[in-house]
Design a protein that fits this description.
The protein is an all-alpha fold. It has 7 helices and no strands. It has one domain.
Length: 240
């Protein structure tokens, strides 16, 4: 007697072949989404850690070794968070383009986005190095100027979406995220300026200055965390 047997499912129900173009689209979406989520999650976690060490370091009950450690940790977290903030610019543009809610009008526009990102990132890293080695603040001021130029533009680009005047943004929820990103850059200005002072305090072991700067960092860091959380919610819920 011959016993019945089951053929493998892949033989009975063959899968449809995936076209190369569809495969590339899925890969682009996965990569852009992963980069975007990774940056957002890191910024949320790092800002919580920075707020905590700022609280510890600014307390009068904290002994000098613990305050020195809190200062160094705050400086390191601030540097990493700043890199994530800058990289959010091309990551957001890439994800919006893949989702079809942000229209890249030309290849030159995408190239310009990456050029601005790289220049901004180099200036930011250079400003931190200058704070460690020099009393001159021209590189730090350049970092502030870049933020002052970029932030209002993002707030404006997000606002005109609600007036139906945007040529690139196709969804109001994305317009809200763009406004929040512009506000986040604005909030980063006092955070960065205080961070530069904190870097100097960490290199000179000035405990009083470090405690004062850590205390001043707490409010803008909290505001930054709220803005990041709101932007993440708009990206997930898409309420508009």
């Amino acid at each position: 007697m011959i016993l019945p047997c089951r053929l493998p499912a892949m033989l009975v129900y063959p899968r449809k072949a995936t076209s190369p173009s569809r495969g590339r689209a899925v890969s682009s979406y996965s990569g852009a989404l992963f980069a975007h989520v990774l940056l957002v999650v890191y910024m949320l976690g790092a800002d919580l850690g920075r707020a905590y060490v700022a609280h510890i370091g600014s307390s009068l009950e904290t002994d000098p070794p613990a305050r020195w450690l809190a200062t160094r940790v705050a400086v390191w977290l601030g540097s990493a968070t700043n890199i994530a903030l800058v990289l959010m610019l091309p990551a957001g543009v890439s994800l919006g383009a893949v989702l079809g809610v942000y229209e890249i009008t030309s290849t030159g526009w995408l190239v310009a986005t990456w050029v601005v990102t790289i220049v901004w990132l180099l200036i930011s890293i250079g400003a931190e190095r200058a704070a460690r080695t020099s009393k001159k603040r021209h590189v730090e001021i350049a970092d502030m100027v870049v933020r002052l130029l970029i932030a209002p533009g993002y707030v404006y680009d997000g606002a005109i979406v609600f007036q139906g005047a945007s040529q690139t943004v196709q969804a109001e929820w994305l317009g809200s995220k763009i406004i929040l990103y512009g506000l986040l850059i604005l909030v980063s200005i006092p955070v960065r300026w205080l961070s530069f002072d904190l870097i100097r305090a960490s290199t000179t072991d000035d405990a009083a200055a470090a405690a004062r700067k850590l205390g001043q960092l707490r409010m803008p860091i909290a505001a930054s965390w709220v803005l990041i959380l709101l932007a993440a919610w708009f990206g997930v819920a898409k309420p508009l």
